[in-house]
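Lab notebook, bench 4. The sequencing result for the construct came back, and we need a structural model before the next group meeting so we can plan mutations. Quick request posted to the team channel:

Model the 3D structure of this chain.
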Amino acid sequence: MGKEEFSWHAPLVEKCRAHCAKIIYWGDEENADIRLLGYDLQLNQTQLEIEADGKKITFRSQLIGRFNIDNILTAFGLCSALKFNLNTVAEGLRKAGGAPGRLERVVDFMDEPLESPVVLVDYAHTPDALEQVLSTVASLPHRELYCVFGCGGDRDIGKRPLMGEIGCRFSDVAIVTDDNPRTENPDEIVNQILAGITATGIEQRSPAWLKRRSRGERGVIVERNRRNAIRLAITSAGPEDVVIIAGKGHETYQLSSRGRLYFDDTLEAKNVFCSWTRARVAKSVGGKLTSDNREARLLGEVLTDSRVVGNDSIFVALKGEKYDGHEFAAQAVENGAVCLVVEKEVVLPPGKDVSQVIVTDTLKALGDMAAYRRAQLAKLCNQTVIAITGSCGKTTVKEMVAAILQRKWVAGPDHQEDCVLKTHGNFNNLIGLPLSLLPLSLTDCAAVLEVGMNQPGELRRLTEIVDPDVSCIVNIYGAHLEGLHSIEGVARAKEELFEGTKGSGTLIVNLDDPRVSSLAEKYEQTKITFTVLEENLKKNPDMWVTDIEFADIGGITFTLHSGMEKEDIHLSAAGEHNVSNALAAAAISYGAGANIQEIAAGLADFRPADKRMEILQVKGGYRLLNDTYNANPASMEAGLKTLRQMAGNYCVAILGDMLELGETSGEAHFELGQLVAELCIDDVGFIGEFKDQAGKGALAGGLDKENIRLFDEKGEAVQWVKKLVIQKKLGQDGLLLVKASRGLRFETIVSELISQ
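Done. Here's the predicted structure in token form:
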């Protein structure tokens, strides 16, 4: 039992004595059975000296904070009562890491040392708990304290100002973010937290302030996105600082109006620790790091375009036929780069805190960085990396595989959103492939990568970078003959993918392509085979199809077989070749762990690219952006920005509902209307259940009422566009965007406009 200062102490002792129970006392009093002789509290450990049974025991614990000393002494008492050897107890407590999410330290586990803050994750989500955690940590030796916290929704709103005041009282930098908003408006929760901060006199500042702040300068920042808030805190803090991420602790989810979604504070912090440092860049490329006094600080993304604004980014100066990236290094620095990967040291304006890593070949260095990241993450988590090549169809197959795997790892309580990384567009060469792979993170379950080539040796290098777990050559035809000379040359070059796949990998084999099938026979890796042709069923394929039917509108149905299992497949794509593409995607996904039901669901989700920002020339003389595949707030923004960017003198949009937004639908469509006005779209027509909210948003944003149309039927929108053409508002220099969620079938609008 502990000190007698607790009110429950004396009554409990009397009850124990009444039952003739043995009582073991711990504390720092001379008569304590387990006596604390001394201790030293640090941020990363606690040193203790204990006396028990006449013996002195000195050891270190990973647990920190004065309250954990009481926990340790209690554990000693319990073990003493059980007659355990106390030296053995001390050794066990030395290794004990404490409860998950209770002042749990997130450690940097990469190979290279990192000058990083101490990062602690704690469950504190009430004023009392937050005060205890912050006061405990504030009493330990440190330089500055950063605190990331928020308040849960549908809970006592009176505690929110208290949380704000406590968070700022103990912190040098407080970052207010979303906790579990549940059904409440997160902005209102934040405002209620800020009300308590206002009374402290601590100034609210922008995230950019962290870059220029002086040590000791205090402030509070609002960053609603919890992932961004965690990254902001860790990358802004330095050695000897401490970052507290409070509120969720061991929880691996976030509750909001969107439901229960996977989110893990500890994993997010680990992801930040996986960021690049100057030393890691130099190690990954085998380069020479020039003068630098902050080589272990965390950096941002890797860029090859000097025009892109980054945040502490790394600029790789590539040399091309027309441009030399070295000539644009200064521009990259102005846009936020703090580390340059160059073949020769470049002269920069004075006063820039920029490091340079000197290499012999920056193109090779870019690939080396991607390979290094892939190898490092492979040590830390279980990810499936897929490489797809072929003479044609590889982009379609890649998109199909991604759709399937998104059904395997569905965003929700168990998996984070966007946990399947994939090549965007056809970034599949020695530049695009590394840029596609470099964003790989601990939260990704898989990466689906397209690899291309136009000369021998390219695929060998790309395979070396990717180190695929699953490899597929979709087909081999006479492509890139200028560099490969013959179809045999193409086959030899494609074979480099199979040749470079590790022994534990899986090869996906198209039995309908004799060249692919022949190449695969040379290798011992596990193989998954597939065929569309009935004649190849005698080869006992792992996956095959029957009952293929082609719909007049372009869809395909067939039955997919895998062993004794089968599923009906509905594919929204035209052309017989897409049956083979779908079967290749099914085999790849099966190799990645997807079952046949997930394969069927993913292929049903797949849509070809012809409805994604497809540029069509219409008989009326204007151009049409057909982006009718689907819509959500982010894609609407992208579509409208593209419209504005590409338009000449006049731009117009027909926009329909964004479906499946739940309770946020009204707000989202109002904001859509505001965005239309903000981007100065000349005319807009809204259709759907939420057209009124979108129209109100456009009005609120400043668009004139005469430029806003609300339609009950799609045919009305078609007639409106026809009038715009007749009035010569929409002509050769005009651009029309048509976009809505899939359920509204806006492709019918496109069809009517094209036919007129």
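The chain has five domains: 9-95, 104-273, 278-365, 381-606, 610-755.
Will bring this to the meeting.
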